[in-house]
Amino acid sequence: MNEPTAERRPTFGQAIQVRLVSDLKKSQAYYHTVLGCQVDDWGHAERGGMVVILQQASSPEDIRPNAPAKKRQDYPTEWEGPDHGWDTFIHVQWEDFEPLVEEIREKGGTIAIEPFSDRHGEFEFKNVYIQDPDGYHLVLGAMRKAEASANKR
């Protein structure tokens, strides 16, 4: 007898951001030199799980980093959302956070907002805002389960 089989649901592949930039060559150099990405002639900038496609904007008005999002009361923790605009959020391992920040700083990267820590529910977070040549914010974020002693405030 044939057993009923679950129907396979189609899935999406990796989502890749497309970023309009004012000077493609300058942005390719920045993503390669400062962020350590492999950058090809198509404008693909990749490091680990981060992939961005850099494309030349037709006009300066087309370059629009994200504004801060509206705060919301319905997150599952007390957090209401970021205070500043995020254009790319990049998860990094907790132990990689400080070395990555130092690497970017040493290579001349702009730290728009210095590293800070926070807690939401059972988790503690570290974030830093890196600003690219067009003002886009790449937020490096690390997360881990809060230690028992840190949970007692």
UniProtKB/TrEMBL annotation:
Compositional bias (Basic and acidic residues): 71-80
InterPro entries assigned to the protein according to its UniProt record, in alphabetical order: Glyas_Bleomycin-R_OHBP_Dase, Glyas_Fos-R_dOase_dom, VOC_core
Transmembrane segments: none
Domain VOC: 11-143
Chain residue ranges for the region called Disordered: 57-80
SUPFAM superfamilies, A to Z: Glyoxalase/Bleomycin resistance protein/Dihydroxybiphenyl dioxygenase (SSF54593)
Domain of life: Bacteria
Name this polypeptide is given: BH3932 protein
